[in-house]
Amino acid sequence: MDPEELKKKIARGDCKVVDNTSSKLKSSVWEKFGVISDEESNIVKGFAACKTCLKVFVFDSRRCGTSSLRKHADTCAWNKLTRSIEQYLSKGTELKVPRRDDKDTITRLSVNFVCNDIRPFDAVHGEGFFALAQGLIDVGAKAGRVDVKQLLPDPTTVSRGVNKYAEKIRQELIPELKMQLEGGNGAVTLDMWTDDYRKNSYLCVTLHYINNKWELIERVLCTSEWDSSLRKTVDNIKPAIISALRKFGIDEFYSKLVYVTDRGLNIVAALRTVTRLSCAAHIFNTVLYTTFKPSQEDMYGEEVTAMIDSAKSLVTYFKQTSLQARLKKTLKNSVETRWNSLHTMLESISSQFEDIRTLLEERGEVDRLTNLDEEALSDFVAYLERFKEATKALEASKTPTLHLTIVWYERIRRHLRASSNDSNIISSLKEKCLSILQDKFDIHRLHRLAMFLHPKLKSMKLIADSSEVASVHSEMRRLVKDLKDKRGSPEEHCHHPPPEKRVRVSADTLSDVEDSNDEAPQYQDEVAAYIDHKTPKDDHFEILSWWQDHAHLFPNIAQIARSILAIPASSAASERDFSCAGYVIQERRSQLKPSTVDDVLFLHSNLKHHHHK
Hints:
Distance between the termini: 38 Å
Number of helices: 23
Shape: globular
Helix content: 40-55%
Structural class: alpha+beta
């Protein structure tokens, strides 16, 4: 085996660079170099690799010294570039306010840039561009006027740098991810996607966990190309997921992680041996589209279908003519796989109905509104609005969402109750939708536990069956006992902490379902103490901040909360990644290597966490 072949294996994830733990090798050069481990964690003898650029060297400690390794460490260009990048991104010196004439000059140059190079206007905006521009200014401040053509790297150099920098951060992440997952703290969302240009399929794997600072972290591990020679079957999907985890040395945790996916039969079957939750936002979307499909027993099915089809045709017509430019807002079309797009389409028409009618009257084409009644459109938009609110809440990325699954399920059920103000069509749709929702929506024990772990929902008043609530309490006590047994600590009595001062507020986003028990607490165990603990009303309540502040009072439950609240309610992380992929893989960039796409999306997701360390 030669060094180049080994480097390719490292890039593919078949091998990895690990610290040299040999007690015989004391040289400081091993701070920058490592040995190579294969898939079975066996050391590949006779080689060493640079931890920064992953270049592989032939090395045998019995026959040669470390001079060649030290020479490379001193001259490694990527190591110098990485240090420079991080210096620019971490500069904390006070910045001056630019003069007006300088801003005017930069505005003119920005206009020249987007027009000369045919770039989008937002090419001069974004954290990455700001860091680059600040770096250029800082170089000029130190070196004076320099030739920017000699300073800026060639596009090929940038392309190669993406791969090297992505691999460097992957290696740096390994210890952190292992540490987080060893405590049973982690969840994975995954999905598959096909690009529009080359029709390549990709598997996106995203890891979610709550770190020691009680911050919810979302990291895209990979957006890897699916081997076109393989069918997307159970036997192929599972190894692909494990391979993605193996790149970070966390494949040993495969069976301990919780997976959140859509209900695709192949993915469900591939994950049948592990804990899997269905994406709640995907279920709501599926329920809606199933509701709108006509059936034999559906009295108004054809009428609803005609309205939706007419709306789609209207949007298409306006986009293909000059009429769209005469509207204040852009008309949006509906795509079944895009959450809330039906609401978006109908709302874009309903909010401009009179303007649309006027434009069509000018052209003698009012018949295009034959199946579109203004009042009916308004009713449909109001009907769909609650589903949009649910999806937006469940797809959040910066705060926990699993505890909201039951909350929104119950809110949607209430929304689907018949009302005397409903039209016949809406009343019929509600009845059908409620039946489909109750059939498709699965409430998992983790949803109940997550709800219990929200301090303002722990009385679980939304669960009518008292035996289910008692079951949650019992399971939480079992989990606490398991933690104590694992640590070998004796059973402890827990004195309830003094109640917190109540804060008077006008409203709260969970006010319709949160707890309001003011009874005096008594001497009890940790779970009972948590149940009786008073949580003041607060408009700006943050669940992770609360647990960080109260972890010393409920240490075992807090550890369980870190694990369960890290699980997202939806697989929206994959949807966000695929949206970014759509920007990366465009007509002008359709020849990008799939591995480069993976590296770009990996850095896009992980740089924000990396630089805030």
